[in-house]
Specification:
alpha/beta; 2 domains; five-stranded mixed β-sheet
Length: 234
């Protein structure tokens, strides 16, 4: 005998899988789970509605019996999630508990602000510049004026804009010298719940008499072909 398909079991399975994936990704890329759930909770209704329509269509095509049979535990679970979602929506948007979406995000520590910082440094007397890990992208161009110059920009999601602006000032470290070092300092980002993971992009203007060591750099590199011979890769 073919096992009967009960409406609700597929929806619950999909919701559990999606929730697990969201939480796993949040641990890897530091995305706030609450932000995602508050935005996409209507998917619960959509998934259950699609399953009901799919069940009706399949049953009609097979034996003409469109009678719905529900998985009581699954429907109960989905209803529980739905009631919580609607209740939270009603409390936050109709009782004035949070006057704006930004207030709601701030109360739960959700990172709804994006903060940017940029700076540039000219290095004198440097014969080799080593780029270390932690920087997302490096673009290397030939220096038209013969000076070794490093420009960088940092962006980060945060729930505290003022705090993030202070931290961003120390996100990139440049140590001058005959062998100079370009690296990131992500200590504060690792320990802070107010900020996400920063994105750091650098542009290096490289003179013909300076070598660039990228043997300890694992980010994305865009290099001007004219200075390829100055790149030390290992």
């Amino acid at each position: 005998m073919m096992k009967r398909w009960r409406v609700g079991s597929l929806s619950m399975g999909l919701i559990l899988v999606a929730s697990g994936v969201i939480m796993l990704v949040s641990l890897i890329v530091r995305v706030n789970v609450l932000n995602v759930l508050l935005t996409f909770w209507p998917v619960i209704l959509i998934s259950l509605g699609l399953e009901i329509l799919l069940h009706l269509f399949i049953k009609k095509e097979s034996d003409g019996d469109g009678k719905l049979r529900y998985d009581g535990l699954s429907v109960l679970f989905i209803s529980f999630l739905l009631v919580i979602s609607i209740g939270f929506y009603a409390v936050t948007y109709y009782t004035g508990l949070f006057e704006t979406r930004a207030d709601m995000y701030a109360a739960f520590g959700i990172m709804n602000e994006t903060v940017y910082a940029k700076d540039s440094t000219v290095l004198s007397g440097t014969k080799e510049l080593a780029v270390l890990g932690g920087i997302n992208k490096v673009t290397v161009l030939a220096a038209a004026d013969g000076r070794l110059k490093v420009e960088y920009s940092v962006s980060v999601s945060t729930s505290d804009k003022v705090y993030a602006e202070d931290i961003l000032e120390s996100a990139v470290k440049i140590q001058p010298g005959q062998r100079a070092y370009l690296r990131s300092d992500l200590t504060m980002f690792q320990s802070s719940r107010k900020m996400g993971w920063p994105v750091i992009d650098c542009v290096i203007y490289l003179p013909p008499d300076v070598a660039l060591d990228i043997s300890q750099f694992w980010g994305s590199l865009i290099c001007d072909s004219a200075i390829e011979g100055q790149i030390v890769r290992d």
